[in-house]
């Protein structure tokens, strides 16, 4: 006998609706500035500005994928073959963002090292103007995306990118001012290296979080043994096996388990108590539990996962 409890993942779609206009605004704003930065970087020869333009490109692409992910996840229920909908799309988008950001950061680091032996002259006037505009755009994007960063790994990726580019714009401004004031051309590649080293650990943390979800690892904040012990403590339960805990997408933790119960136990009470414990103590809203009498445990086809 089994039972499933929990809220439908519609709350995630509702959250997506609330934040969709923020994504569209950030997409338009950063897309415009990205083009301006790329053109100016080529004209001025600034590696710091080029790196910032590259990261802003991944911002724009990442936000575009975020919008696509929100649109796709809102199509849940329209295809009966997709029993979990398309909620994993946002996780794929976050992982793609992390990979692209890593590639851009590594490219800038390699190019900066090459320039140490003979840095080209940088035209700081246009570089400074575009950097200030980029700073203002990134501040707006940062404010727009921050509320959703706590609710979605996809929006968290876009938020981290906006934060990274905000710091990138400050770095470009600093490089332009140093070069303009002192003529020290090495400031451009040195600041580009510092910015790349600052970004990489944060990018890899995002990629790691997305990978954990895709391989269906248990959430880091949850101890599977604690979940198992709590289920065994439910009155009437004598054993718990085939226990699996994973994250479907941001904010949706899923559990399945087989509960062995005393022959005289009330199955309804067991299921209700188990589901309540999972919801209140572990914030697991979606649980599928199969209840088995003691005598059937040997016949239960448990997989050795």
What brief labels describe this structure?
305 residues; Alpha-lytic protease prodomain-like; Alpha-Beta Plaits; four-stranded mixed β-sheet; 8 helices; 4 strands; 64% helix
What's this entry about, in short?
By secondary structure, the chain is an alpha+beta fold. It has helices at about 10-45, 45-75, 90-115, 125-145, 155-180, 185-215, 225-230, 265-280; strands at about 1-5, 235-250, 250-260, 285-295.
How does this structure look, described?
It is a single chain. The chain has 305 residues and is α+β, with helices and mostly antiparallel strands. It has two domains: 6-214, Cation efflux protein transmembrane domain (Alpha-lytic protease prodomain-like, Up-down Bundle), CATH 1.20.1510.10; 224-299, Cation efflux protein, cytoplasmic domain (Alpha-Beta Plaits). It contains eight helices and four strands; from the N terminus they run E-H-H-H-H-H-H-H-E-E-H-E. The chain has a four-stranded mixed beta sheet with strand order 1-4-3-2, with helices on one face. Strand 3 (252-261), helix 8 and strand 4 form a beta-alpha-beta unit. The longest helix has 35 residues, at 10-44. It is elongated and about 85 Å long. The two termini are 21 Å apart. Its main location: membrane. Pfam families: Cation_efflux, ZT_dimer. Residues 220-293 form the Cation efflux protein cytoplasmic domain.
Structural class estimated from helices and strands? alpha+beta
Question: Would you give the CATH topology of the largest domain?
Answer: Alpha-lytic protease prodomain-like
Strand content: 5-15%
Binned, the helix content reads 55-70%
CATH architecture of the largest domain: Up-down Bundle
Report the strand count.
4
Query: Number of DSSP helices?
Result: 8
The arrangement of helices and strands along the chain is EHHHHHHHEEHE
Q: What distance separates the N and C termini?
A: 21 Å
Overall mean pLDDT: 80
Q: What is the rounded Rg?
A: 25 Å
Number of domains: 2
* Poorly predicted sequence stretches spanning 5 or more consecutive residues: 4-14
Which CATH class of the largest domain applies here? Mainly Alpha
> What is the approximate shape?
elongated
- Strand sequence of the main sheet, in spatial order? 1-4-3-2
Largest sheet: 4 strands, mixed
